[in-house]
Every structure is written in structure tokens, then in C-alpha cells.
């Protein structure tokens, strides 16, 4: 497949995934879309290219991606129970790209406040709070 047609193929996959989100993905999307969660911009069904050569590339499609935080949110349904080895390999590849992955199980989305807090904890890891202006200086 030529690089140009491959890119169109990837875009088509992402668009199709956006049209056919699971209920759990819809719930999380409502939580993070339009910078609703702490002003962070998330993209849904976003391609992550992990290997790029002159005439081809390899990619994953992340459920949700925040470039500012280098954070991927993966919403895991039943299928992930049977593909743990693949998920572990995929996580390893993404971590090699200095991306962080937060896996959220479908059933967790009924507790949306806990999901929101889990995501926020990932923000804290990346950006620790600034020192207080009231600290004593030596």
C-alpha cells in the first residue's frame, strides 16, 4: 500500500471508530471533550505512529489522547481479557515513545467521579504543584 493511501486508510479507521464508540467510550468522551476536564484537550480515536520508515508506518489508535500530558486513555472492554499479552506489548511500545497509558475498564465508567479523579491523578504525576509562594526562603 502506498504511503498516501495508507494514511487515508488510517484516517478512515479513526473516523469509523469515532462513529462506533462503545457506551463506556461515550461516557468518558463526555467527561473530557471540549477541555471539560481541567482545561486539557483530548482527542478521540487518535492515531499514534510508532514506527515510521520512508515508505510505510506502523500505528495504534488510542481511544483518547492528550498531547499536553502525553497521556492515553484506553477504555477496556471484555475483549481485553483475551488479549492481555498484546495489550502489554502495546503499552511497552507506547511507553518507549514516552507516552503514559491509563486503562479504564468499561464497568468503572458507572462511577464517573472516580474515573475523573483517576485521570486527574495522572495530571498530578506529570505536573506536581508549584511550591507555595509563602514558603520561607533562606
CATH topology, anyone?
Endonuclease, Chain A
Q: Classify the helix fraction into a percent range.
A: 25-40%
CATH architecture annotation: 3-Layer(aba) Sandwich
Read across the widest sheet, the strand sequence of neighbours is 1-2-3-4
* Termini separation: 64 Å
The largest β sheet comes out as: 4 strands, mixed
Structural class: alpha+beta
Unreliable stretches (pLDDT < 50, length at least 5) are none
Mean pLDDT: 86
What would you call the shape? Answer: globular
How many domains make up the coordinates?
Answer: 1
Rg over CA atoms, rounded to whole Å, is: 17 Å
Oligomeric composition of the shown chains? single chain
Topology:
Blueprint: H1 3-19, H2 23-32, E1 43-52, E2 57-66, E3 71-76, H3 84-96, E4 100-105, H4 112-126
Can you offer a commentary on this structure?
The protein starts with a helix and ends in a 12-residue tail after the last helix. It has a 4-stranded mixed β-sheet, with helices on both faces. By secondary structure, the chain is an alpha+beta fold. It is globular. Helices cover 40% and strands 23% of the residues. It is built from 4 helices and 4 strands; from the N terminus they run ααβββαβα. The longest helix has 17 residues, at 3-19. The mean pLDDT is 86. A hairpin with a 4-residue loop joins β2 (57-66) and β3 (71-76).
Amino acid at each position: 500500500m502506498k504511503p498516501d493511501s495508507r494514511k487515508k486508510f488510517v484516517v478512515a479507521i479513526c473516523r469509523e471508530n469515532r462513529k462506533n464508540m462503545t457506551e463506556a467510550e461515550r461516557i468518558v468522551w463526555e467527561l473530557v471533550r471540549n477541555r471539560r476536564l481541567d482545561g486539557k484537550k483530548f482527542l478521540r480515536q487518535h492515531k499514534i505512529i510508532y514506527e515510521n520508515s520512508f515508505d510505510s508506518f506502523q500505528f495504534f489508535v488510542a481511544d483518547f489522547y492528550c498531547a499536553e500530558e502525553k497521556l492515553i486513555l484506553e477504555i477496556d472492554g471484555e475483549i481485553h481479557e483475551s488479549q492481555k499479552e498484546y495489550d502489554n506489548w502495546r503499552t511497552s511500545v507506547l511507553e518507549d515513545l514516552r507516552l503514559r497509558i491509563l486503562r479504564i475498564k468499561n464497568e468503572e465508567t458507572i462511577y464517573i467521579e472516580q474515573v475523573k479523579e483517576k485521570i486527574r491523578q495522572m495530571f498530578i504525576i506529570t505536573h506536581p504543584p508549584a511550591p507555595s509562594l509563602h514558603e520561607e526562603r533562606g
